[in-house]
Specification:
The protein is mostly helical and 230 residues long. The protein is built from 11 helices and 2 strands. 36% of the residues are buried.
């Protein structure tokens, strides 16, 4: 597991440094291969994993590695299989939403709506296995009242709702671009009005950065949150 995570960390580090996509993908592919080998061995050797949760953790790592290597469908297959067993795993819901979001930005803009609204229907309930940012925000907000550690997730969700609208606007033009930018603005305005602290300095900086990007795409001066708070 340490070896697989090391490959994944190398890929993430290269992404932050702006390294070429092929090199980054090679590390994520290596990570995915290690995690898959562990899962396969656990399936045939019951005594191999220390606990059942150990296997779950590796499945999540595999899903994340597949997402980062651009294997979005396979990543969602992994997350859906986990959520079919334990739908209330909020970190897995978050990883699945990021998969839709990354897929939408990289290849298929229609997936950005799935990132917000969710996807992968559970045939037994007719509801989405993957909640998407909007429902995850609602659940995180309720859970945070009893477990404050989920407060940051609540703000992360709403930030990403607006980001998805912004990413959709980047890939559109004309009336559709204006529509997506307007939707992103409404989300940010609503969050700022209801929660002026925006979850603390780091999240506030994230919201400010996103609003500046929106303003730039609109051809306006990028003043950030100053516009909504003035």
């Amino acid at each position: 597991q340490w070896i697989g995570q090391t490959f994944a960390n190398l890929g993430e580090g290269l992404a932050a440094d702006g390294a070429d996509a092929e090199t980054r993908q090679s590390y994520f592919d290596e990570a995915a291969a290690v995690f898959q080998a562990m899962i396969d061995r656990a399936a045939t050797e019951p005594d191999f994993p220390p606990t059942s949760n150990s296997v779950l953790a590796v499945r999540v790592q595999l899903g994340n590695a597949l997402r980062n290597s651009g294997e979005y469908e396979q990543s969602l297959d992994i997350f859906s299989s986990i959520l079919l067993e334990r739908q209330l795993l909020l970190d897995v819901q978050k990883s699945a939403a990021y998969t839709y979001q990354q897929w939408g930005r990289a290849e298929d803009p229609s997936q950005l709506l799935n990132a917000i609204r969710g996807g992968r229907i559970d045939s037994s309930t007719g509801k989405n296995l993957i909640w998407g940012w909007s429902r995850l925000a609602s659940v995180a907000g309720r859970v945070a009242k009893q477990q404050p550690k989920y407060k940051d997730l609540f703000f992360e969700c709403w930030l990403n709702v607006a980001r998805c609208r912004y990413f959709a606007a980047e890939q559109a033009d004309g009336a559709e671009r204006s529509k997506q930018l307007s939707s992103a603005r409404r989300t940010l305005r609503s969050v700022v009005r209801q929660y002026p602290d925006l979850g603390g300095p780091q999240r506030r900086a994230d919201f400010d950065r996103l609003l500046k990007q929106i303003q730039q795409l609109e051809g306006k001066e990028p003043v950030g949150l100053e516009e909504l708070e003035g």
